[in-house]
Specification:
Two copies of one chain form a homodimer. Chain A is an all-alpha fold and 309 residues long. Chain A is 70% helix and 1% strand. Chain A has one domain (19-306): Farnesyl Diphosphate Synthase (Orthogonal Bundle).
Amino acid sequence: MIATDGRPVPQEKSPVFDLSTYLSKRQAEVEAAMDASLPITYPDKIYESMRYSLLAKGKRLRPILCLATCELMDGTVEMAMPTACALEMIHTMSLIHDDMPAMDNDDYRRGQLTNHKVYGEDIAILAGDGLLSYAFEYVAVQTQGVPAQRLLQVVARLAKAVGASGLVGGQVVDLESEGKLDIQEETLNFIHTHKTGALLEASVVCGAILAGATEADVERLSCYAQNIGLAFQIVDDILDITATQEELGKTAGKDVQAQKVTYPALWGLEVSKTKAKQLVAMAKAQLEPFGEKAVPLMVLADFITTRTH
Amino acid sequence: MIATDGRPVPQEKSPVFDLSTYLSKRQAEVEAAMDASLPITYPDKIYESMRYSLLAKGKRLRPILCLATCELMDGTVEMAMPTACALEMIHTMSLIHDDMPAMDNDDYRRGQLTNHKVYGEDIAILAGDGLLSYAFEYVAVQTQGVPAQRLLQVVARLAKAVGASGLVGGQVVDLESEGKLDIQEETLNFIHTHKTGALLEASVVCGAILAGATEADVERLSCYAQNIGLAFQIVDDILDITATQEELGKTAGKDVQAQKVTYPALWGLEVSKTKAKQLVAMAKAQLEPFGEKAVPLMVLADFITTRTH
């Protein structure tokens, strides 16, 4: 379709994109790939423990963001799948270690007993270490059809996202803030942009790098990811108050019990909901130049604020 | 010097290689590089905790093996230094996590209180995670003058050496064997080839890969490393019985207390010493084709069996 001034008219948004079908299909692909990535061998116990947490029910949001971004930048699902699996391995490691008695001391996660409750604290520490190192091995060894230089960038981004300058640093400030009810918005933002945001951003950015995206596009997609990362956390805080344990698959009301400052505590529930929506709108604005191809990332951004668990 | 048949005569072995000077120089270089690798930034506590264990007094055997092998294969110290630092980061992570109450429950390491005794168990878990991920970031980002393809191989080798198919797997079998005094030699070998051997082997192999060594040379050096790895562990077991806590910098007699089967328990002290010497001889035999250039690795192999701590 061509407008009267001769320029192509942007296509209407496809009315048939069904998120639920899309997510189910992608979740199944990611879960099949993860299942195949980690066969059980001697010593069985450590592999069983790693698989117990890795294959537990989950949204697979990080892998799906990585695959969607790679496709958006004209890469394939195949070239991004090892990195997608690695993202879930890293995320799972952080959940196993965070749930331990020395940290958040959680008994339930993803609708089942936490790793250390089943396998013991020693194996839980080691299962986390095993998943973290295997993530890097898996990207380096299993990725096909991507230049080594790009893969090195992916390794660097993943490692930075999980380390002291990312997830680990966020968790440290979170632990330090526990019980302090006078935490400022700045500190809360630091916690979440590091504890949750860094790995979500890496998910999107790595998908783009694998496909050979330009620096400008990587920057734009990083911005998208940072906004949905913060929105994701605000919604998480809201759900901790409003959802039931059954819906969450983990202990509900945990933040209040642990005297953790949350966005609803800082802003109230209604303002928190509004801010989450604003962040999602800002995220989606970054995708405008990509047109129709960005529909999956657009819809994923909406999904974050409307999800109920 | 040319022989009568026109071929160059192999040089006599240099009589002046002084191991003590060599080790001191290399240790100082590695420690300066590690110190510079990890500046303290917000949140300070996690960086302080990582630095506390990383920079604690240590032999730096893994970095030194990596640098020496890279030089042997005509690479430079500069191109191997980030990997050398990464090896010590990974080794330090394994010590921090192994020392935790849920695992070996040690109070002293490298002549100082263990990480969790100073910083708490939560920070100790996170410091380990931070060091492990930073190791991969550091290799990927800081290595200069090495093709990306080789660096990816290094990432894969390091990751495999620390994961469930390496160090973590060895630690799991070690934990399972505790208190069982009927452990077979096969199981003891599995524990040590994985818990100690895998990372020592990776140290040597990564040094060779960085320098662009042929597959045959990598294989030969891997064999050298496997032999000194096992010898190293036998000597460690011997020292646990014969050395004092002051000499070791960690709790002495720990293995006996923990009812761990050791090589001296299996073979007796004298046979253990003999086997360690045989393994070192086998290791050195692998180095013959490299001639004079292999002197540092030769002497390092000897050092392992004659060390007193």
